[in-house]
Every structure is written in structure tokens, then in C-alpha cells.
Write a structure and sequence with these properties.
- By secondary structure, the protein is mostly helical.
- The protein folds into three domains: 100 residues, Orthogonal Bundle (Fumarase C, Chain B, domain 1); 249 residues, Up-down Bundle (Fumarase C, Chain A, domain 2), CATH 1.20.200.10; 95 residues, Ribonucleotide Reductase Protein R1, domain 1 (Orthogonal Bundle), CATH 1.10.40.30.
- The protein is 60% helix and 4% strand.
- The chain has 18 helices and four strands.
- Strands 1-2 form a two-stranded antiparallel sheet.
- A hairpin with a 2-residue loop joins β1 and β2.
- It is elongated, with a radius of gyration of 31 Å.
- The relative contact order is 0.10.
- The structure holds arginine.
- Its EC number is 4.3.2.1.
- Pathway: Amino-acid biosynthesis; L-arginine biosynthesis; L-arginine from L-ornithine and carbamoyl phosphate: step 3/3.
- GO terms for molecular function: argininosuccinate lyase activity.
Length: 458
């Protein structure tokens, strides 16, 4: 018979190519700790039901701790027959504790084992991502607080639209990322339930106390159906979707910064730490960090769609296709960990050029304010929009700005115009007028900073 863990009914050898094709150890080894913690909890649960003795349980638990130490010290030696992390750890445990290692897998299957390992790993790693995400939000909030007096042009269609505060732009990304943080917390709560005790598919025959196992492993509940327990990977899809949406935000931010750092805009300069030069053109300083962030977003979207293709159309319960859930997840988690930290670095070290932003504020951006001026004099907005449009046209025809039109020019457009129309040509005033909740006025920007700060402290 074959030497494999599952080799009892096999007589022929497996094609070595198939062996390599089937093996997942080279990527699932990163779940070594989750796998060992799961096994330790399971050993205790077996003893609790008298399936093994307390002494055997202790032997298994301490033996597993030694295996864990090897992984941590980088001394664990992967053998050719170690198909995946589960078989590798069990093989090594046997070398430490002898034949009692063979009792560990009683009533358990790699199907409920791998589902458990992956949930533990995902929970622990996404909690770290949540930490990185909060740090990034903190970087935005800190800048927004310091630079609240800087004004810049706001854009729609990448055309100059209305003046805004630089901090208002910064905070727009902080709010997107806060939504990502809330989404991730919910995903973590949902995925943190225990599949172990589902067996291969039909359930555990030894009346294992699953609530006990869940408590041991820090889960907040127990999956209620064993078929569902071994087949569900919705949490992988959810994390990949979360990662994708978060990367959309990072990618759009990067695009803004790439544009704002161009010579034509010149609003910001990236720190040297997050830029690179050209091998040919000595003058170049390229925003590579932002380009990589924008580029890596594509990679994460690919992991989401790739995984969904694997996941769809599987018949009930465990199928080996599910082994393909890990690499997309691992890659996305790694990409997000890097991207969130790099983005925080870019944001906190960026140099801004307020005078360049100011130079790009143009009087035509106050056309809406001109219309609003008349609204405050009682003229219906639809009329005022036309009148302000006419003022824009006249200024354009005369090759000047609206602020240079005379009071009689304005009086010709509407009788409600008075001397005080000259007060419209003030960018800061335009900004301060937008003081309803969520607007770009100083007070409403400061209120946003306060809200986000309080949330970060929660
Ligand atoms: N390496 C496998 C995976 O990642 C473990 C489960 C294998 N189970 C099985 N019955 N072949 O999904």
C-alpha cells in the first residue's frame, strides 16, 4: 500500500507530476499556527469526551507546541510526502510523540480542519489589516487638521468646478476608507464561526463539544450544518470583495495624486521616499508608489473574479477545487497589507504647494456663487443660473473675468444686482458659504475631523 496518510486503499503509485500538482504545502504552510491551535483544541475536546485520556491529550498539546516552535524558528523541515500543512504537522507530531499522534484525527477530516484553519488565519490577518487601515485613516485626519486653511480647486469631470478646502479633499478619502473599515469589521464578525466538528461532511460521531472548541479558538459561534461547514467559502469571497473595493479607493486616490503631482498641476510633491528617478532622463521624479498602488488594484480584482470562477458550480460539500481558495486570498491579503502601509507613508510625507492651488482658483469657479447671490435677493434659481451664465459669456467675450464687469453690466443682466455684488469674488467666502453638514466650510471640515477622531478612538 501507499505511504500516504490516505494510502490504505491504494496500490499504484501516484504520478510524481500529480503529486506536485496536488500538493498545497508550499502555500498553505503559512497557516501553520492556525492548524496547530485547531489541533490542540480538538485534542482537548477528544479528552473531554473520553475518546482519549487527559494524559494523551496533554502529550498531543505539548507535542504540537514543539512543532509550532519549529515553524517559528524556521527549523521545520518539509518532507516530500508532506502534502499540505495538515499532513505535515501530523507527521512531525508523530515523530515527537509516537503512535498517540494517530489518535488526533479521530472523527476529524481535513475538510473541517482546512475550513477551520482558513477561518482562523483569515480572522487574525484581517484584524491586522484593520489596524493598517485605521492608521491610514489617521494619517489623513492628521493632515486635514494641520492644513485646514489651504484652499484648492475642486473638480468634476476633471474640469475646475468650485473652490474647496484641501482638507475636505483629504477627508473624502478618509470617509471612503472608514466605510471599508466598517465593512471589514462586519466581515470578520461573520466569518468568525467554527466549522470543526463537521467531519468530512456528515458531522462528528463522537459527540464533540463544539461550543467548547469554539471558545478555545476564539470563535464567536458554531456553524450549524456540517455540509455547509465544510463547503462554505463565502468569507473568502467577502474578504476579496472588501479588498477590491478598498483598492478602488486607493487607486482613485493614487490617480488624483499622480495628476496633482504633474508639472501642469504642481499641487503636491511626493517625498523622495515614495518616488523614483529615470535611468535616462536626469530631471525625472516619478510617482511610482502611486502608480504601483493603482496597478496592484487590478491584481486584487483579478483574485476576486478568479476565485468566484473556482467557487461557482461546485457540487455539495468539499471538492478539491476549494484548495484553490487560498492563493487568491493570501495574495490579496499581502497586497493590501503593503498597499495600506505605503499609502499611509505617501499621505503623511507628501509636500503640498498651497500657492499653486491658489493660483488655479479662477473667478469663473464663482459663477454658482453669483447665481446664489441673486437667489438671496429673491430671484428664482433657474433664472439666476441663466443670468450668471450670461455674465460668464460676457466676461469671456471681453477676454476678462467676471470680477471686472461693472455694476451697470450686472444691472443690465438683472435689476436686483447691487454694489455688494463685488463681495462675491472671494474664494474663501464661497467656501464658508457651504456650511451645511458635510460641506467644505471650515466649521464643517473641523466637525468631520472630530467625528473621525472619535471613531478612531472607539
Ligand atoms: N489541502 C486541502 C485544501 O486546501 C486540504 C483538504 C483536503 N481534503 C481532502 N479530502 N482531500 O483544501
Amino acid at each position: 500500500t501507499s505511504a500516504k496518510l490516505w494510502g490504505g486503499r491504494f496500490t499504484g503509485a501516484v504520478d510524481p507530476l500529480m503529486d506536485a500538482f496536488n500538493a498545497s504545502i508550499h502555500f498553505d504552510k503559512r497557516m501553520y499556527e492556525a492548524d496547530i491551535r485547531g489541533s490542540q483544541a480538538y485534542a482537548k475536546a477528544l479528552a473531554k469526551r473520553g475518546i482519549i485520556t487527559e494524559q494523551e491529550s496533554t502529550t498531543l498539546v505539548t507535542g504540537l507546541e514543539k512543532v509550532l516552535d519549529e515553524w517559528r524558528n524556521n527549523t521545520f523541515e518539509i518532507k516530500p510526502a508532506d502534502e499540505d500543512i495538515h499532513t505535515a504537522n501530523e507527521r512531525r507530531l508523530g515523530e515527537y510523540v509516537g503512535s498517540v499522534a494517530g489518535k488526533l484525527h479521530t472523527g476529524r477530516s481535513r475538510n473541517d480542519q482546512v475550513a477551520t484553519d482558513l477561518r482562523i488565519w483569515t480572522r487574525d490577518e484581517t484584524r491586522k489589516l484593520l489596524g493598517h487601515l485605521k492608521q491610514l485613516i489617521g494619517a489623513f485626519v492628521e493632515r486635514a487638521e494641520k492644513e485646514v486653511d489651504v484652499l484648492m480647486p475642486g473638480y468634476t469631470h476633471l474640469q475646475r468646478a468650485q473652490p474647496i478646502r484641501w482638507s475636505h479633499w483629504l477627508l473624502s478619502y478618509a470617509w471612503s476608507l472608514q466605510a471599508d473599515a466598517l465593512r471589514l469589521s462586519q466581515i470578520i464578525d461573520r466569518l468568525n464561526v467554527l466549522p470543526l466538528g463537521s467531519g468530512a461532511l456528515a458531522g462528528n460521531p463522537f459527540n464533540i463539544d463544539r461550543e467548547f472548541v469554539a471558545q478555545e479558538l476564539g470563535f464567536n459561534g458554531v456553524i450549524q450544518n456540517s455540509l455547509y461547514g465544510v463547503s462554505d467559502r463565502d468569507f473568502v469571497a467577502e474578504v476579496l470583495f472588501w479588498a477590491s473595493v478598498t483598492m478602488v479607493h486607493i487607486s482613485r486616490l493614487s490617480e488624483d495624486l499622480i495628476i496633482y503631482s504633474s508639472g501642469e498641476f504642481g499641487f503636491v510633491t511626493l517625498a523622495d521616499a515614495y518616488s523614483t528617478g529615470s535611468s535616462l532622463m536626469p530631471q525625472k521624479k516619478n510617482p511610482d508608489s502611486c502608480e504601483l498602488l493603482r496597478g496592484k488594484s487590478g491584481r486584487v480584482f483579478g483574485q476576486l473574479s478568479g476565485f468566484l470562477m473556482t467557487y461557482k458550480g461546485l457540487p455539495s460539500t468539499y471538492n478539491k477545487d476549494l484548495q484553490e481558495d487560498k492563493e487568491p486570498l493570501f495574495d490579496a491579503v499581502e497586497t493590501l497589507a503593503g498597499s495600506l502601509q505605503i499609502t499611509a507613508g505617501v499621505i503623511s510625507t507628501l509636500k503640498i504647494h498651497p500657492e499653486k492651488m491658489q493660483q488655479n482658483l479662477s473667478i469663473d469657479m464663482l459663477a454658482t456663487d453669483l447665481a446664489e447671490y441673486l437667489v438671496r435677493k429673491g430671484v428664482p434659481f433657474r433664472e439666476t443660473h441663466h443670468i450668471a451664465g450670461a455674465a460668464v459669456r460676457i466676461a469671456e467675450e471681453r477676454n476678462t473675468t467676471m470680477s471686472n464687469l461693472s455694476l451697470s453690466d450686472f444691472k443690465q443682466l438683472h435689476v436686483a444686482f447691487e454694489e455688494d455684488v463685488s463681495a462675491v469674488w472671494d474664494f474663501e467666502k464661497s467656501i464658508e458659504n457651504r456650511s451645511s453638514l458635510g460641506g467644505t466650510s471650515r466649521a464643517t471640515v473641523v466637525a468631520q475631523i472630530e467625528k473621525l477622531r472619535n471613531w478612531l478612538l472607539e
